[in-house]
Amino acid sequence: MSKFIDVNDSNFQKDVLEYADTPVLVKFWAPWCGPCKVMTPIAEQVAAARSDDDLRFVDINVDEAVNVTQALSIRGVPTVMLFNKGQRVAAVTGGLNRQQLEAFIDQHI
Prior knowledge:
Elements: E1 4-6, H1 12-17, E2 24-29, H2 34-49, E3 56-61, H3 66-71, E4 79-84, E5 87-93, H4 98-108
Parallel strand pairs: 1-3, 2-3
Antiparallel strand pairs: 2-4, 4-5
């Protein structure tokens, strides 16, 4: 079972910006994106290895969340963003391996 919560334009505010319990890792992806398909199981492994008290994991399909994608100036996928208490803390665009994704998370939370 995936730890990633599907988020779109209608629930982004509540599930990411207003979520204050833990930092939120948002993975922007698209079904037509090859690197996204490679990164998805890697992100799932990273999520499975972390505590729910440590980090919340969110998936956003850029084709379905056009307003959020435009508001955050997403120019490429996959893009990973980290939010804490509604503020964007860090972002990286491009496919990441497990070690790179874990380092990105650890560096910014």
